[in-house]
Structures are given as structure tokens and as C-alpha cells.
UniProtKB/TrEMBL annotation:
The family this protein is said to belong to: Belongs to the zinc-containing alcohol dehydrogenase family.
Pfam families: ADH_N (PF08240), ADH_zinc_N (PF00107)
Sorted UniProt keywords: Metal-binding, Oxidoreductase, Zinc
Segments forming domain Enoyl reductase (ER): 8-343
UniProt-recorded name of the protein: Alcohol dehydrogenase
Xref: SUPFAM superfamilies: GroES-like, NAD(P)-binding Rossmann-fold domains
EC numbers, comma separated: 1.1.1.1
Keyword DNA-binding carried by entry: no
Cofactor dependency: Zn(2+)
Source organism (scientific name): Moraxella caviae
Domain of life of the source: Bacteria
């Protein structure tokens, strides 16, 4: 099969021909139809993820058609249209038994723990637990955009922040994760404040339901502005970027007993932000993480999409080829594109 392969971290990948994957007894092989280009892929490419062994094929947000099935798989067959959460549970650990596959003790992640979806085929383990059937009404490009950013934001807003209609939700960073959170928060009835440094991203956030947009380059105290606007602070706030400044601004923008949800990965120089613990203690703030979403939580999200309450297709910025994905991957750190980029195979 054709795949994007890098042999050293932070060195330009190339398109190569490699052996097709084969399914494990409880797994499947998926013919990839579309795969997203995500900042997490860039983190892996530059060496921020200890799970990656070289040489490596990146890619973890994908959708496609089942091409081969292991002998123990019961719920899926060749030809099924599917997608998968970026975290695949083992089905045997205490977290999986409790329904928390997104924090499985022995999780696998295509594109990190094994070769990913910047390729014609990708293997998925424990298929009956982790695969999600796609409705015929959903195209592969939209489905691929769900796998990491959209579902992580859905869990962050709905399950972790537990946002309610009429509450204030601040979203710091309007890339794919942040824009997804804006849409989901607005659909839940929240008053969403979108924060970014690019006016074009804020314009898209406004069109997706943001009630207020703040350009952080034009406002010297973002957190103070949010507290003033909301008369005390947001009920919940997300750092959707993964930078020290957005993490701290998110926490400082909260009302007492508010919830900060960290969605953007904090790696490299941003791995140890200066958390304002005095404010956390005095205000009884909650600091939460959001790490993907379980396959069994997809039906509620899919129902909102089918009802037109969520329209993830509006987040698609552009589609590219597998060959073009190399430049998109290595340029992700300084990416200024608006919306989600998806590779179509």
C-alpha cells in the first residue's frame, strides 16, 4: 500500500510503498477514504509522543470501509462504512469495564501506538468495542473530521464541563478543536465566547454560534475581559490550543466554582504551565481533562448531527491529497488555515 512514512523525528516524510496490514483476530483492516490532519499528528512527527517507534506512519482521524475482518469479530463485516475514536480500548481493564475506554489502561491509538491512517489501509484492534458504524447520510470527509477534534470537544463540553443552556462557555483557541467546541456549546444553549488571534477564525466561530468573539492580540487582559463581560466569569472554559498562555487565561476567566477543561495537548515548552493555584483553591475551581470519547457515546452525538443541531461539515476548511499531506503535516505548527484540513484518498 501507499503511505506517508517518516524515518526520523522532525525530518521530512516521504510517500512509500509498504506491506498492507493484516487484522488481528479481534481486529479489522480499514480501507481509508479520508483522514484529518491534526496538531496531534504534528506533535508525533516532532517527537513529543513516547509511544511512537520509528519508522512511522502518522494519522489518527479517519473514516473508511472495512476491507478485512479478524475471525473473532462479530459486529462488523467487509464493506461496512466505519469510523473510530482515536483512542481504542482493550476491553479488559477496569477503565474499559467501567465504560471509560478513552482512558483505557492498555489503549491503542492508530498513528501513535502503531501505524496510522496517512495510508491506503489502517489496522484497528478490538473492533467490536471500538468501531462505529457510519450512516449512509454522512460522507467520509465529514466522518474523518469527527475522530479526534470533534469528539474530544463533544466530551469536553457535554460530559466534562456539563454545560447547561444559558451558561457562559469560553473557548480559547479556534482551530479545529475550538471551533468544534463553539458549535457544540452553542447547540447546547450556552453563551459562547470565542478567543483567538486571527480575525478570520473568529469570523468562522461567530458563524458557528459564538455570542462574543475576542481577538487576544487586541485585548491586553483576555481573562479580565471575560470576567467583566460575564459579570464574574465563565461557568466553564476550555483551552483548545494547548499553550501556557491559553491554559492560564482559561483558568483565570472562570467564575467561582467554575470548570476549566484542558483539551489542547500541553507538550514541549508548554508542558508545565504556571497554574494559578491560589485562584483554584480560593474559588474552588475544577481542572479537568478531555481525552477523546468512547465509541458508545457516539450515538448521542450522531443523533444531534442527524437532527441538524450539529453540522461538523461546516468545520471543513479544505481537502487535499495524500501527497499534499506531507507539507500540511510539517507546517502544522505555524498553520494559519481556517477550519479542518482532510486528506482524501
Amino acid at each position: 500500500m501507499k503511505a506517508v512514512l517518516f524515518e526520523q523525528f522532525n525530518q521530512r516524510p516521504s510517500i512509500v510503498n509498504v506491506a498492507d496490514p493484516t487484522p488481528s483476530n479481534d481486529g479489522v483492516v480499514i480501507k481509508v477514504q479520508a483522514t484529518g490532519v491534526c496538531r496531534s499528528d504534528w506533535h508525533g512527527f516532532v517527537g513529543h509522543d513516547a509511544d511512537i517507534e520509528l519508522p512511522h506512519v502518522p494519522g489518527h482521524e479517519f473514516a473508511g470501509v472495512v476491507a478485512a475482518v479478524g475471525r473473532d469479530v462479530k459486529r462488523f463485516k467487509v464493506g461496512d462504512r466505519v469510523t473510530v475514536p482515536f483512542v481504542a480500548g482493550c476491553g479488559s481493564c477496569p477503565e474499559c469495564h467501567a465504560g471509560h475506554q478513552q482512558v483505557c489502561d492498555h489503549q491503542s491509538q492508530p498513528g501513535f501506538t502503531h501505524w496510522g491512517s496517512f495510508a491506503e489501509y489502517v489496522a484497528v484492534h478490538h473492533a467490536d468495542l471500538n468501531l462505529v458504524h457510519l450512516p449512509e447520510s454522512m460522507d467520509f470527509v465529514t466522518a474523518a473530521s469527527l475522530g479526534c477534534r470533534f469528539v474530544t470537544s463533544y466530551r469536553a463540553v457535554i460530559d466534562q464541563a456539563k454545560i447547561q443552556a444559558g451558561q457562559w462557555l469560553a473557548v480559547h483557541g479556534c482551530g479545529g478543536v475550538g471551533l468544534s467546541a463553539v458549535m457544540i456549546g452553542a447547540a447546547a444553549g450556552a453563551n459562547v465566547i470565542a478567543v483567538d488571534v486571527q480575525d478570520d477564525k473568529l469570523a468562522l466561530a461567530k458563524s458557528l454560534g459564538a455570542a462574543v468573539c475576542i481577538n487576544a492580540t487586541k485585548v491586553p487582559d483576555v481573562a479580565g475581559a471575560i470576567r467583566e463581560l460575564t459579570k464574574g466569569g465563565a461557568h466553564a472554559s476550555l483551552d483548545a490550543l494547548g499553550a501556557s498562555v491559553t491554559c492560564v487565561n482559561s483558568i483565570n476567566s472562570l467564575k467561582k466554582r467554575g470548570k476549566h477543561v484542558q483539551v489542547g495537548l500541553m507538550l514541549g515548552d508548554d508542558s508545565m504551565p504556571a497554574i494559578p493555584m491560589g485562584r483554584v483553591i480560593a474559588g474552588e475551581l475544577e481542572i479537568l481533562g478531555s481525552h477523546g470519547m468512547q465509541a458508545h457515546r457516539y450515538p448521542d452525538m450522531m443523533a444531534m448531527i442527524a437532527a441538524g443541531k450539529l453540522e461538523p461539515s461546516k468545520l471543513i476548511g479544505k481537502t487535499i491529497t495524500l501527497e499534499q499531506s506531507i507539507d500540511a503535516l510539517i507546517g502544522m505548527e505555524n498553520n494559519k488555515d481556517v477550519g479542518v484540513t482532510v486528506v482524501v484518498l
